[in-house]
Amino acid sequence: MTTEPATTVIDRRLSIAPMMAYTDRHCRYLLRLLSRRALLYTEMVTTGALIHGDRNRHLDFDPFEQPLALQIGGSDPAELATSARLAADRGYSEINLNVGCPSDRVQSGRFGACLMHEPAVVAAGIAAMRAVTSIPVTVKTRIGVDERDSYEHLHDFVSQVHAAGCDTFIIHARKAWLKGLSPKENRSIPPLDYPRVYQLKRDFPQLTIVINGGIETLAASKTHLKHVDGVMIGRAACNNPYMLASADRTIFGMAVTDVSRADVLRQYRAYMEKQLAAGERLSNMARHLLGLYMGQSGARHYRRILCEHSSRGDAGLEVIDTAVNALRLDSVVQPVAGGR
Fold first, then answer.
1. Which of 215, 246, 266, 337 is deepest in the core (most CB within 10 A)?
2. Which residues of the chain have pLDDT under 50?
3. Annotated catalytic residue, options 27, 101, 166, 238
4. DSSP E strands: which ranges in the chain?
5. Under 8 Å between Cβ of 36 and 248
6. First CA to last CA distance, the chain
7. Active site annotation includes 101
C-alpha cells in the first residue's frame, strides 16, 4: 500500500465514527493506511471554535486522509453557514451536523441530541449550510431522545430535515437520555433498535441511511448492508484498527490484498518520524497503535511498552521499535538507540 492521497469520491458503505479524543489527525492517518475507501470523520468541533478559535488546528488535515468529513456542532444558521464555507474551502468531502451527542456541555450550547426536540432548528441550519456550499451536508442523530422516542417522532424529524436539503442521515440506533445517563452510558444502556433504522430506509428509499451503534465486525456490517446504505463503526475500529485491513476487499469489493500489520506500522513509523521532526510528541501518535496487534503473541508486552515509555518528553522512535521487538515477531524496522 502506498501513501498516495485517497480518492475523494464518497462511498458510504463503511465509515468510521467521529469520536472525541479518538479520531484526531494521527488516528485518521493510521486508519487510512488500513482502508483506502472507508469514509473518515473528524472529532466534533463547535461552530464557535471554528469561527473564533485556532482555525488551523481545527481544520488542518493531511490530504492522504481523504475522503474526510468534518463534524460540527451548533444550531445558529449563520454560524453553521460560516463553518460550512470554511470546511468546503479547506477541501473536506462532507460536512456533518452533530444531532446525537447527549453530554451536558453540548446541551448547554444548544447542539447535539437536544436538537432532536427542535427539528425546525436543525432544518434551518441545514438550509443555511446548503446555501453556501456544494459538498454534501449530512446529519448524525439518534433514533429518539428522552420521551420523544417513537418511530413517528423519528419519521417526522427526518421528513423536516430532508425537506431542508439533507439527503444523508447517519442514525445511531439508540435513543439518548439527556438527564440521568452519562455520554458513556448513553452509548450502551439504551437498547439498540436496528429494525427501526431499517424501517426508516424502507419509508425513505430516496435517502441515504447509514446505521451506527454496537457494530463491531465487518461481518456484522455486511448483514446491515442488506437493509441500509451504509454502516458506521465506532470504538471497535479504534480498539482493534486492524479489523479494517480487509474492508476494501470484503465491503467495497476491491481486488486488493489485505495490508499486513508490518506494512501499516512501517508506513505509520515514517509518518511519526516526520511529525516528531515538526515538534509533535510521540505519545499523541503512539496511543493509536495500542490495538494494532490485538490478539497477537506479545501484544500485552507491546502495549505496556508503548504506554509506559511513549509519554517521556524525549521519547522517540526507539520506543516503537522496542515495543515491536516485544511481539516475538521479526522486527519491521531497524532499532534506534536513545531518545530523539
1. 215
2. 1-7, 330-337
3. 101
4. 14-16, 39-41, 45-46, 68-73, 94-99, 137-145, 168-176, 208-212, 230-233
5. yes
6. 28
7. yes
Instruction: Please give the model's pTM, rounded to 2 decimal places.
Output: 0.92
Residues 6+ apart with CB under 8 A from 189: 177, 181
How far apart (Å, rounded) are the C-alpha atoms in residues 186 and 193?
14
| Phi, psi angles (nearest 5°) of residue 88 | -65, -40
Given a contact cutoff of 8 angstroms between Cβ atoms, the answer to whether 16 and 237 are in contact is yes
pLDDT in tens, 126-142: 999 999 999 999 999 99
Residue with cell 439518534: 142
Residue 323, exposed/middle/buried by CB under 10 A (0-12, 13-18, 19+)?
buried
Exposure of 198 in the CB half-sphere (CA atoms within 13 A): 9
Q: How many CA atoms lie within 13 A of 266 on its CB side?
A: 13
DSSP 8-state assignment for residue 232: E
DSSP secondary structure, 74-102, as one string:
---HHHHHHHHHHHHHHT-SEEEEEE---
